[in-house]
Write a structure and sequence with these properties.
Blueprint: H1 3-6, H2 20-28, E1 34-35, H3 48-66, H4 76-87, E2 98-101, H5 103-115, E3 121-126, H6 130-137, E4 142-149, E5 152-153, H7 159-163, E6 168-171, H8 185-198, E7 202-205, H9 221-224, H10 226-230, E8 240-245, E9 257-260, H11 263-277, H12 282-292, H13 296-322, E10 328-329, E11 337-341, H14 348-357, E12 360-361, E13 363-364, H15 375-378, E14 381-385, H16 391-418
Parallel strand pairs: 1-12, 3-4, 3-6, 6-7, 7-8
Antiparallel strand pairs: 2-9, 4-5, 8-9, 10-11, 11-14, 13-14
Helix pairs in contact: 3-12, 5-6, 5-11, 13-16
The protein binds pyridoxal-5'-phosphate.
Pyridoxal-5'-phosphate (PLP) binds at residues 39, 103-105, 129, 131, 172, 177, 205, 207, 245, 247, 252, 257.
Length: 419
């Protein structure tokens, strides 16, 4: 390898490692492996025909716009559509509050770039989305981790870390990745009022909110935000930046997400995005707009919900059937993941190696914890994805995984007796 380059890497790249999931995905591409490791939507539900028609229409009627450079803020009709769409969840935004990003992953990167100096602290859930840690790590973030349980982030443990003055909190209220948990309505109120009390803004990341399989939609933090409520400008958005994406409702290959923010934050983000990629693909934005219009997206989301709800139920049933009683797991009301906790003494990394021999894969839990973020627990946890395998594969994969789990737990028994 050329040292001319490798000796010149910037300091901020020190300690940055390739994502554990990316490494695992390489392995899971072997056809004999049943993978619960990725976070992939089911490719069967991609509306390919609708995309084909939309591409043809956009190219036939507006190729001069679609193939040209566009505005950094995004394609105006798409921004307007997003503003209309989120209004039904109570988020009062105008199109100028919406910045189109190249996936919500780019939104996380831009937020890191805009707000984080080396050593700044970000308050995160433990566990949290690995991709956010990767995005913030590059800007030298430190972390304050707050544990979560079945009702999401423990708002009763928030006060001390908030007093420590994080730059912002990063929260996933709906069907969290990796935990599958949802922040309860009362905790949403507590969290927003504590944030208000300590003057700490919130980044609300909501890629899965629409993928609810049971129960009622809960109020987004951005709607509860006091600063919003104080504002009387005909649109909301105060102390909360709200992120979402088309990755889980249309297709992740589009790389289309968005940030909803106050106009002054949008203009700063726009400057940073110009340096990153000038703008998100005009063609892709126009195609997505064409696909989503006339209520297609709403109808399509109903289909996705039906398909994923069934897959979730198959996985929950298989876990009940095959897994030993000492193992527990979350029962997500939506999203793509559930989160398994093994008994004390178990080791999910070692389990992963054994699972590989059984041709089944998952993501070990510790990589979802920020440094110093209660990863002890993470060492005996694992994330299982239920959206991409077929129902029979889910049953068979859980059966295979249960063999590896039982073997490991049996090997722990003598130790437990001695202790
Ligand atoms: C919580 C969360 N945020 C952001 C993303 C990034 O999504 P995308 O960049 O595809 O919009 C993901 C992807 O899985 C996610 O789970």
């Amino acid at each position: 390898m050329s040292t001319a380059w490798t000796s010149r890497y910037a300091q901020r790249t020190r300690g940055i490692q390739s994502s554990a999931i990316r490494e695992l995905l390489k392995f899971t591409q072997r056809p004999e492996v049943i993978s619960f490791a990725g976070g992939l939507p089911a490719s069967e539900v991609f509306p390919a025909d609708r995309f084909r028609e939309a591409c043809c229409k956009v190219l036939a009627e507006e190729s001069h716009v679609a193939l040209q450079y566009g505005a950094t803020e995004g394609y105006e009709p798409l921004r307007e559509m997003i503003a209309r769409h989120i209004a039904r969840y109570g988020i009062r935004a105008k199109s100028e509050n919406v910045l189109i990003t190249s996936g919500s992953q780019q939104a996380l990167d831009l937020i890191g770039k805009l707000f984080l100096n080396p050593g700044d602290r970000v308050l995160v859930e433990a566990p949290t989305y690995l991709g956010a840690l990767q995005a913030f790590n590059v800007y030298g973030a430190d972390y304050l981790s707050v544990p979560s349980d079945d009702d999401g982030l423990r708002s009763d443990l928030l006060e001390a870390p908030l007093r420590a003055g994080p730059k912002f909190m990063y929260v996933l209220p709906n069907f969290q990745n990796p935990g599958g948990t949802t922040l309860s309505e009362s905790r949403r109120h507590d969290l927003v009022s504590l944030a208000d009390k300590y003057g700490i803004p919130i980044v609300e990341d909501d890629p899965y909110g629409q993928l609810r399989y049971e129960g009622e939609h809960l109020t987004p933090l951005v709607v509860l935000d006091r600063e919003n409520l104080r504002r009387d400008q005909g649109y909301s958005i105060g102390n909360v930046l709200y992120l979402s994406t088309f990755s889980k409702t249309l297709a992740p290959g589009l790389r289309l997400g968005w940030i909803v923010a106050p106009p002054e934050v949008i203009s700063k983000l726009v400057q940073l995005k110009q340096g990153a990629d000038l703008h998100t693909s005009t063609f892709v934005q126009m195609v997505a707009h064409e696909v989503a219009r006339d209520n297609f997206l709403d109808e399509h989301v109903k289909l996705i919900r039906r398909v994923y709800r069934e897959l979730r139920d198959v996985m929950l049933d298989a876990l009940t059937q095959f897994f030993p009683a000492e193992v527990t797991w979350t029962k997500p009301k939506g999203g793509l993941f559930l989160w398994v906790t093994l008994p004390a003494g178990a080791n999910a990394q070692k389990l992963f190696e054994a699972a590989v021999r059984e041709n089944v894969a998952f993501v070990p839990g510790d990589c979802f914890y920020a440094p110093n973020g209660h990863a002890d627990l993470g060492r005996r946890q694992m994330r299982l994805n239920f959206s991409s395998p077929q129902p029979e594969q889910i049953k068979e994969g859980v059966r295979r995984l249960s063999i590896a789990v039982k073997q490991q737990l049996e090997s722990l028994q003598p130790l437990a007796t001695v202790l």
